[in-house]
Design a protein that fits this description.
TIM Barrel, 11-stranded mixed β-sheet, Immunoglobulin-like, alpha/beta, 34 strands, 8-stranded parallel β-barrel
């Protein structure tokens, strides 16, 4: 681990920025915002397409106050484009012309409706349909490396209570939904109220619900999950504080604690807790917004949920995650937890709260410790702080006093040891999942649009951090992550039988085929590498390309058919060009393959089959830039006893369903 640190005053901001929810900003004193458009950005900014292919562009209009966020779409200055240069819809979906234009590069522009002087443009190079090049060899052996694929790997974090979100969950047969994020750390189930901490000026703002606790934000998700057949994963506060009242409350009141660098634009008495000189306000009163809790709070909530929805075994809340990113509490929730989190604190809080959950519902599962990313796998917050303040390197891992006090053992390994010790002492397993957040991609990918060609290539290449021992992270981690194998090793060495959950991750670009390819690759990796649960943070909307990555695995034909449930051996001689994943399907005995072409070239590859006797043809379903609005059923692919040769189009997802001989 070669990541260099920075002095602690600067790093606090950097670490909090890595958490899953964004923060806000404002002036030192409140000024009504001016209503105006200030700029437009477009994504991607450059792309190469073949004639007839499609590309979804997104435009973001920025401004102050209240302003119109709509744009007009133009191609070479023509609103909507035309058949010669390509057409573009009112939602930004561009279709390249059927013949190469002259010049071959056209300009797609998004212009603010409110202020036509504000616009952004992208260059689209249109090429003729590419010649097919030789692709890597693919090998599938259905008799080797068999293991179940846990359907929970196709999960998501909460995605909205609108009809479209519920319809997508129904369509995808969404197996699990996690209700999490920074605000859940201080959620008071009795009052249906929370505080997002540093994400939004430490402000408590009541919602419009009445009739709580029965009518509440959380309960509405449980009830939607029950309608869609989805298991609910709840986040259980363990920080020791929850929001105290259904009122507008400030963690750092300007009236009480003085002027601050930024304030909530809607509640200007709520500051960001940073003095005008850049130092943090200390010694504030946690009870300004919150009330202290202990594990009884957790037990009472679980008992209430069992009474309302039944036990986990009978269809109630299935899994409880122990809070959210506790190594970041000292930044995200420093108004109630200003001190750095330690090894011992994490053990003790897990013992108390997890035991209370298990006592209230022995059939429920518990996941923890829900740490945010790479540094938290190895060190506590106390280690980071001491390292950042230790010369000469000022590194987060430069003086790990907490880790050294615990035998030099990486935090997650030590944590697993403590959970095993609890079971040995009490005869009860209180931790079912090792719960980590998988923000291990290079900088500039998560939650970002597709970007330029180099960024798109990096996005597709960097999924190797999830499994490949030869891939060194190309960002600030600068190490060999191999996330899934590493976590499996730690579990096997320290607490065998514990399952692996990656409850937040994001590789960006849901609006683009590039993001769809990356997401499909990630889902394939999770299945092959025996991850037990994974929930995407920032799920796509139904129409976005990344949603089709889920459809390929969960409902490729609109009739509920999906990828198989038993992973089998599948390998590519060049995973960077063509990735392949394979699984057997129980319902009909079919062998299902997902092949992902990550290149801009159509590739011809031979697929060798073993351990399976196929019928003479495979059903083929494909998602590609040729039609970004649907998965297309293609003509059947001839299959011989030992395999077949096929063309896999550029930038495409291909699902093949090979039936067995009767």
């Amino acid at each position: 681990m070669n990541r260099r640190g920075t002095r602690v005053v600067l790093i606090v901001v950097a670490v909090v920025a890595l958490s899953n929810c964004g923060g806000g900003s404002g002036g030192g004193g409140y000024k009504p915002p001016v209503n105006q458009v200030t700029g437009v950005t477009i994504s991607p900014t450059s792309i190469t397409l073949e004639t007839g292919q499609e590309q979804q562009f997104t435009a973001t209009v920025t401004g102050t106050g209240t302003y119109d966020k709509e744009v007009r779409w133009l191609v070479n200055g023509v609103e909507g484009g035309n058949s010669a240069v390509g057409s573009i819809s009112s939602t930004g979906r561009f279709t390249a012309p059927n013949a190469v234009p002259s010049p071959s590069t056209v300009t797609v522009a998004a212009t603010s409706v409110e202020n036509s002087t504000k616009s952004a443009s992208a260059a689209v190079k249109v090429n003729p349909i590419s010649a097919t090049g030789p692709g890597p060899a693919l090998q599938v052996d259905a008799a080797m490396a068999q293991h179940p694929i846990n359907p929970y790997i196709y999960g998501m974090n909460y995605y909205g209570m609108d009809a479209a979100s519920e319809a997508l969950a129904q369509e995808l047969r969404l197996p699990v939904l996690r209700w999490g994020g920074d605000a859940t750390t201080r959620y008071n189930w009795r009052l249906d109220i929370s505080n997002a901490g540093n994400d939004w000026y430490f402000t408590t703002t009541p919602n419009d619900d009445t009739g709580y606790p029965d009518v509440s934000e959380f309960n509405s998700y449980v009830e939607q999950d029950r309608r869609t057949g989805t298991k609910t994963m709840a986040t259980m506060p363990t920080i020791g504080w929850v929001t105290k009242a259904r009122a507008t409350l400030c963690g750092f009141s300007v009236a009480k604690y003085g002027q601050q660098q930024a304030v909530n634009p809607w509640v200007p008495d709520c500051g960001n807790g940073v003095k005008p000189d850049g130092s943090n306000i200390t010694g504030n009163d946690p009870t300004d917004t919150s009330v202290a809790i202990d594990p009884t709070f957790a037990g009472d909530w679980v008992q209430y949920l069992v009474g309302r929805y039944g036990s986990a075994a009978s269809g109630g809340v299935a899994i409880y995650s122990l809070d959210n990113e506790p190594m970041l509490w000292w930044g995200t929730h420093r108004d109630v937890h200003p001190n750095p989190t330690t090894y011992d604190e994490m053990r003790d809080r897990t013992y108390g709260y997890a035991a209370a959950i298990k006592e209230a519902d022995p059939t429920a599962e518990v996941s923890g410790p829900a740490v945010y990313g790479w540094p938290a796998y190895f060190y506590s917050t106390l280690d980071w702080v001491t390292g950042w303040n230790t010369p000469p390197d000022w590194r987060y891992d430069g003086n790990p006093i907490d880790r050294n006090a615990h035998g030099g053992v990486p935090f997650l390994e030590w944590y697993l040891q403590q959970m095993q010790a609890y079971e040995q002492a009490h005869g009860v397993r209180i931790l079912d999942y090792l719960d980590v957040h998988g923000y291990v991609q290079p900088d500039g990918l998560a939650f970002q649009p597709a970007g330029d060609a180099a960024t798109q290539a990096l996005r597709l290449r960097s999924t190797r951090s999830l499994w490949d021992p030869t891939y060194r992270d190309e960002g600030s981690i600068n190490d060999y992550v191999r996330l899934a194998p590493r976590m499996h090793e730690w579990v096997n060495n320290n607490y065998p039988g514990t399952k692996l959950a990656i409850t937040e991750y994001n590789w960006g670009a849901p609006e683009d085929i590039n993001g769809a390819l990356a997401q499909a690759d990630i889902l394939g990796i999770f299945g092959r590498e025996a991850v037990d649960l994974a929930t995407l943070w920032g799920p796509p909307s139904s129409a976005q390309p990344a949603a089709f990555a889920y459809r390929i695995y969960r409902n490729y034909d609109g009739a509920g058919n999906g990828f198989g449930e038993t992973s089998v051996s599948a390998a590519s001689t060049d995973q960077g060009q063509l990735a392949v994943y394979a699984a057997l399907r129980a319902a009909d005995g079919a062998l299902t393959l997902v092949v992902i072409n990550k290149t801009y070239v159509h590739l011809t590859s031979t697929v060798t089959l073993a351990g399976f006797v196929p019928t003479g043809a495979a059903k083929v379903y494909r998602y590609s830039p040729a039609n970004l609005g649907t998965i297309v059923a293609e003509p059947d692919q001839a299959v011989e006893a030992t395999g077949f040769t096929a063309i896999f189009p550029a930038m495409s997802l291909t699902l093949l369903v090979i039936g067995p001989v009767a």
